[in-house]
Amino acid sequence: MFSQIICASALVLSVLATPTPLPPCSWNTTKQPCSCAAGTYLVNATTWGVIGADVKDVAKITDDFHQTTWFGSVTSSTTGNGKKPGATRTFSEGPFSFVEELFDFTQKECGEFTMKYIQHDVPVTFDIPGAPQTYAGQWDTLKVYSSGKDKTSIYWNIYSCFSVDSPFAHFHELAINNVTDILKQAGKIKGPGEAPHSETIGSVPKSASKRSFTPLRI
């Protein structure tokens, strides 16, 4: 009996000591811890901002997956309908290309929408001499919704598994500010907004990242 208790205790300790492996990062894990592919690191960045304009005016600038100039980038090619899942957009710089796919899109008559998109054909490795870069996945959610009369909130979240630094929080803040500037020039700003701010969880170790990833710009 004593030996059976010892064996049972050892079994329990063994089970407790064995960590449960985290699931691979995907759309199903965006609300819980997950694991990136070897050599890449999970970064979760969320940006919020408020624009003093009607949600329809903000949506006209931001609700088409194929229209990217509002965040300072141009596509080299697109496929499909920019408001229907399955559409793609390609960003190119020299011999390198980065493809994103619209995963989900819903929109209300008032203009509010939720857009979700992913990195296409992962993993992608750019064999840059001395600093190879691997992109093993990114999962973005962009929400634009009314938060009062002439007040529109923007929520932008990204999970990414990259081998290089990804300053997406700063990039998203600049993009939201750019939407405000576009609307100011059009005379569409009707009230005060709130400057965008961000929260980032996770990072790429400096020893692992020899070169930062900069989103492609105009």
How do you describe this structure in short?
With 218 residues, the protein is an alpha+beta fold. It is built from three helices and nine strands, in the order H-E-H-E-E-E-E-E-E-E-H-E.
Number of strands: 9
Q: Termini distance?
A: 75 Å
Radius of gyration: 21 Å
Strand content: 35-45%
User: By helix and strand content, what is the structural category?
Assistant: alpha+beta
Biggest β-sheet, characterized? 9 strands, antiparallel
Low-pLDDT regions: 1-16, 209-218
Query: In sequence order, what are the helices and strands, one letter per element?
Result: HEHEEEEEEEHE
User: Into which percent range does the helicity of residues fall?
Assistant: 10-25%
Number of helices: 3
Mean pLDDT across the residues is: 84
**What coarse outline follows from CA principal-axis ratios?**
globular
What does this structure look like?
It is a single chain. The chain has helices at 2-17, 55-62, 168-185; strands at residues 41-51, 77-79, 88-93, 96-107, 113-119, 124-126, 133-148, 151-162, 194-201. The protein is α+β, with helices and mostly antiparallel strands and 218 residues long. The radius of gyration is 21 Å and the shape is globular. Mean pLDDT is 84; it is low at 1-16 and 209-218.
Topology:
Elements: H1 2-17, E1 41-51, H2 55-62, E2 77-79, E3 88-93, E4 96-107, E5 113-119, E6 124-126, E7 133-148, E8 151-162, H3 168-185, E9 194-201
